[in-house]
Amino acid sequence: MNEVVWRGGSGKTSEAALTGPASTREKSATRTSTPKTSTSMTSRIVSTEKNLLEKDDRDDRSPGASEKSNIAPAVPAIVIYKLLGFTLAMIAGPIGMYFLTLDTIFHGNSTWAGATAALTANVVLIAYVIVAMNEDESEKREAAQIAKKGQ
Amino acid sequence: MADNELAPKFAPFFGMAGIAFAMIFGCAGAAYGTAKSGIGIAGVGTFRPDLIMKSLIPVVMAGIIAVYSLVISVLIVGDVKPPPNTYSLFEYVLSLFRPFAAMENAKDDSSGFMHLGAGMSVGLTGLAAGYAIGIVGDAGVRSYMLQSRIFVGMVLILIFSEVLGLYGLIVALIMNTRTN
Prior knowledge:
- The structure holds two protein chains of two kinds.
- Chain A is built from six helices and no strands.
- By secondary structure, chain A is an all-alpha fold.
């Protein structure tokens, strides 16, 4: 009785309420399958009823609550490693080359060491462009292979 | 330390102002370029996630602008030394004013105006280049989502924007060379 009142006094039986919009879902399907053979519309199986707190988890209100979310990364690990590598190269590469070449190669001539640092930054950029282009091609190849298998 | 016309006590201010100019303006340009093209990439990524890797090129280019500023700042920082080294405004002839400088192990290889000019050169060209990269990056990746042939043109335009910052770096390096 309590349940009927809670649903806004609509007069629905609990059977009808349970097989609401989310009746195709697993939860409600198992609940309704047992009484169908033996009960009429008015009788209930008391043990399967939810209390007020559990009603918050109704499937029609929060459809994904009972399912496990897919939290696996959408980006493959190799791409993340590539991006991390380029980030590291961009941070450490130019300034590292400056201090590395300052005393070893250019013997304290900071101008050439600075030019080397700028050059290193551009080398990282060109490497990134090449890697990005190659990834596009490898994706195309994979797609072609999948298409072949499908035929 | 003798105070004279070409090496006043406030001379290091200009060198440090050069460092600040280089980093502030260069990073402002890089930040604008990254943020503006990042907006475009976020818009593209929701429709075509496979293009994200190639769309990140403007962000990498904007990062290089900041590297240019960093290089010049490091160069200037290396030249700004406390006394007994002298730090002049421009072309301070050491032997003329300080005959015993060699005995004091003092070096005179700095000039504040040159450092200020070098910092402003790389900083403000970096601002210009970052601004261009931001706008081209935003519009470019959005167009690339619809028409893949845009890519080569977009990269070319981005390179030309990037070169603006490179010119500033070259001039700054030359100016820095003149100081020592």
